Amino acid sequence: MILAIVTFNLPRPVALAEISATFQSTAPRYLKLPGLLRKNYFVSEDGRRAGGVYVWESRAQAQAVYSPEWQATVKAKYGADPDIVFLESPVMVDNGAGTIRVG
Protein backbone atom coordinates (compact mmCIF):
# COMPACT_ATOMS: atom_id res chain seq x y z
CA MET A 1 0.00 0.00 0.00
CA ILE A 2 1.02 3.59 -0.59
CA LEU A 3 0.26 6.60 1.57
CA ALA A 4 0.06 9.91 -0.20
CA ILE A 5 0.09 12.99 1.98
CA VAL A 6 -1.14 16.01 0.05
CA THR A 7 -0.59 19.37 1.74
CA PHE A 8 -1.18 22.96 0.71
CA ASN A 9 -0.81 26.26 2.53
CA LEU A 10 -3.99 28.30 2.44
CA PRO A 11 -3.78 31.98 1.42
CA ARG A 12 -5.78 32.95 4.52
CA PRO A 13 -6.79 31.13 7.70
CA VAL A 14 -10.09 29.24 7.39
CA ALA A 15 -12.56 28.19 10.04
CA LEU A 16 -13.21 24.48 10.52
CA ALA A 17 -16.86 24.80 9.43
CA GLU A 18 -15.87 26.59 6.21
CA ILE A 19 -13.21 24.09 5.17
CA SER A 20 -15.41 21.17 6.22
CA ALA A 21 -18.11 22.39 3.81
CA THR A 22 -15.54 22.61 1.02
CA PHE A 23 -14.23 19.13 1.78
CA GLN A 24 -17.76 17.71 1.81
CA SER A 25 -18.35 19.21 -1.64
CA THR A 26 -15.32 17.40 -3.09
CA ALA A 27 -15.58 14.10 -1.17
CA PRO A 28 -18.08 12.39 -3.54
CA ARG A 29 -15.60 12.44 -6.42
CA TYR A 30 -13.33 10.10 -4.41
CA LEU A 31 -15.99 7.43 -3.82
CA LYS A 32 -15.24 4.23 -5.74
CA LEU A 33 -12.06 5.71 -7.20
CA PRO A 34 -9.98 2.76 -8.48
CA GLY A 35 -7.24 1.87 -5.99
CA LEU A 36 -8.23 4.36 -3.28
CA LEU A 37 -8.76 2.55 0.01
CA ARG A 38 -9.24 5.56 2.27
CA LYS A 39 -8.99 9.34 2.31
CA ASN A 40 -8.91 11.61 5.34
CA TYR A 41 -9.11 15.35 4.84
CA PHE A 42 -7.30 17.57 7.34
CA VAL A 43 -6.84 21.18 8.37
CA SER A 44 -4.30 22.53 10.86
CA GLU A 45 -5.52 24.02 14.12
CA ASP A 46 -4.62 27.52 12.94
CA GLY A 47 -6.56 27.04 9.69
CA ARG A 48 -3.59 27.85 7.47
CA ARG A 49 -2.67 24.40 6.14
CA ALA A 50 -4.95 21.71 4.73
CA GLY A 51 -4.89 18.60 2.60
CA GLY A 52 -5.55 14.90 2.59
CA VAL A 53 -4.02 11.63 3.68
CA TYR A 54 -4.75 8.92 1.12
CA VAL A 55 -4.22 5.17 1.30
CA TRP A 56 -3.78 3.63 -2.15
CA GLU A 57 -3.34 0.07 -3.35
CA SER A 58 -0.43 1.20 -5.55
CA ARG A 59 1.62 4.27 -6.41
CA ALA A 60 0.61 4.00 -10.07
CA GLN A 61 -3.06 4.35 -9.12
CA ALA A 62 -2.26 7.38 -6.97
CA GLN A 63 -0.18 9.05 -9.64
CA ALA A 64 -2.94 8.51 -12.20
CA VAL A 65 -5.19 10.73 -10.04
CA TYR A 66 -2.62 13.42 -9.22
CA SER A 67 -2.44 14.61 -12.82
CA PRO A 68 -1.57 18.17 -13.85
CA GLU A 69 -5.33 18.78 -14.27
CA TRP A 70 -6.03 17.55 -10.72
CA GLN A 71 -3.24 19.76 -9.36
CA ALA A 72 -4.66 22.77 -11.26
CA THR A 73 -8.10 22.06 -9.76
CA VAL A 74 -6.60 21.98 -6.25
CA LYS A 75 -4.80 25.27 -6.88
CA ALA A 76 -7.96 26.91 -8.22
CA LYS A 77 -10.09 25.72 -5.28
CA TYR A 78 -7.63 26.35 -2.43
CA GLY A 79 -5.33 29.04 -3.82
CA ALA A 80 -2.11 27.04 -3.52
CA ASP A 81 -0.17 24.32 -5.31
CA PRO A 82 -0.36 20.94 -3.58
CA ASP A 83 2.75 19.23 -2.22
CA ILE A 84 2.56 15.42 -2.53
CA VAL A 85 4.67 12.98 -0.50
CA PHE A 86 4.51 9.23 -1.14
CA LEU A 87 5.27 6.69 1.60
CA GLU A 88 5.18 2.89 1.74
CA SER A 89 2.61 1.45 4.17
CA PRO A 90 3.28 -2.25 4.77
CA VAL A 91 0.57 -2.69 7.45
CA MET A 92 -2.74 -0.90 8.07
CA VAL A 93 -4.88 -1.36 11.19
CA ASP A 94 -8.57 -0.54 10.61
CA ASN A 95 -10.36 -0.50 13.94
CA GLY A 96 -13.67 0.40 12.29
CA ALA A 97 -13.61 -2.77 10.22
CA GLY A 98 -11.71 -4.75 12.85
CA THR A 99 -9.03 -5.73 10.34
CA ILE A 100 -5.31 -5.66 9.80
CA ARG A 101 -4.25 -5.37 6.19
CA VAL A 102 -0.74 -6.40 5.11
CA GLY A 103 0.85 -5.35 1.87
Walk me through the structure.
This protein is an alpha+beta fold and 103 residues long. It has one domain (2-102): Alpha-Beta Plaits, CATH 3.30.70. Helix content is 28%, strand content 37%. The chain has 3 helices and 6 strands; from the N terminus they run βαββααβββ. The protein has helices spanning 16-26, 59-65, 68-78; strands at 2-9, 36-43, 49-56, 83-88, 91-94, 99-102. Strands 2-3-1-4 form a 4-stranded antiparallel sheet. Strands 5-6 form a two-stranded antiparallel sheet. Strand 2 (36-43) and strand 3 form a beta hairpin. The radius of gyration is 14 Å and the shape is globular. The termini are close together. 12% of the residues are buried. The model has no long low-confidence stretch (mean pLDDT 95).
